[in-house]
């Protein structure tokens, strides 16, 4: 019997179902694993390694450690979310960054330990107070399905189950559906009939996240963004002659700067610059043409005093444009194709170490509304599954889950009914992604319904500029359903809608 199938979802976490026969089988297998403390041969094994840092540039310490692990033959396959946490045990020290990764390696357990300790030393860790400050801390949580119990190494790590800052990232590395026999063995080694999920719930589970002691963060610019405190507004600035709503209005640098100033005054958190229209059947520009439109406006916007503390996103599906935009000072890339239209995009994003907005779309803007691209069995499940495949490709290219932002692509390869189903079913999109990766399912979720054609079809508004009221309704439904960022043309009215949504959600959490 597959005991994981007895588990049921609770929000983004999981509650173990009670099943006595399942428990007995789990404990029996656990005992057989626990007493097999052996060194394995140099066959490739899947491992879980926890990371922590609270000295120096914490994020750079993580990235440096991951690069060194790769060079040592420890190949990263999955990343947890990124957490900022209060120190444990020794509390008079700076806050930690924590995460965990899954990887494959041929290094035997003690050789793996030796390699990780060498990386720690190379990054400046020295002997000091136990549980005290450190530039990097690398712990082996699991090694295949094996247990090890020697004077220098214990696997599973003996203090996993008491540490929320370890358990949170560990849970992220799993899906609600176990992906192989090795992950099943990790569940059994937790000594809980409901596996690691039950162990996490015993600590407090998702109720721990967002409190002062432990929060999920996304690194962007020079800060760590806790996106869960309130919904964020992304203001749209199209420097194009042919966008469906505001094409031609903000082509000049002066008009673009004026528009940005207005959106920031109205409460925009992010400005999304686009120099190529992605409306259905839009003419496709070359990267050079797109850059010619984009760069003068981007340079002007970056230098605006009003942009202090704000973020700049660039809407492009070209890796060349992404590279140049980030060099000029943009903070993140918004890719409507999630890497489908430029095979080098994921590698470039990985190298730039920036947040990546990956959107669901089938085909390209010229084909996305073709009949074959509008066929879904269950649009929320299908979009979740296809979007997972795209971001999984990005993760394998080196873009960690903690830098991802997901967009289900309202209006792209969707009919009116599909768009409505997605707006009403955002938890279903997350749940489908979570079947394979809880980390990716917990990424910030962005929706972009603003002024789109399906709103005009429903409301009888042929003029896109007259669809703001309908947009507010969609934004409200989306945020109450779990969206974290809304991409809109009219910032002011949608900012007010989000204030109401945030107030409602705060009240909901109290009950």
TrEMBL record:
CDD domains: DHPS, HPPK. One of its GO terms (molecular function) is kinase activity. It comes from the Eukaryota. This is Pterin-binding domain-containing protein. Keywords: ATP-binding, Folate biosynthesis, Kinase, Magnesium, Metal-binding, Multifunctional enzyme, Nucleotide-binding, Transferase. In the C-terminal section; belongs to the DHPS family. The keyword Transmembrane helix does not apply. GO terms for biological process: folic acid biosynthetic process; tetrahydrofolate biosynthetic process. InterPro entries: DHP_synth-like, DHP_synth_dom, Dihydropteroate_synth-like_sf, Hppk, Hppk_sf, Pterin-binding_dom. Pathway: Cofactor biosynthesis; tetrahydrofolate biosynthesis; 2-amino-4-hydroxy-6-hydroxymethyl-7,8-dihydropteridine diphosphate from 7,8-dihydroneopterin triphosphate: step 4/4; Cofactor biosynthesis; tetrahydrofolate biosynthesis; 7,8-dihydrofolate from 2-amino-4-hydroxy-6-hydroxymethyl-7,8-dihydropteridine diphosphate and 4-aminobenzoate: step 1/2. Its cofactor is Mg(2+). SUPFAM superfamilies: 6-hydroxymethyl-7,8-dihydropterin pyrophosphokinase, HPPK (SSF55083), Dihydropteroate synthetase-like (SSF51717).
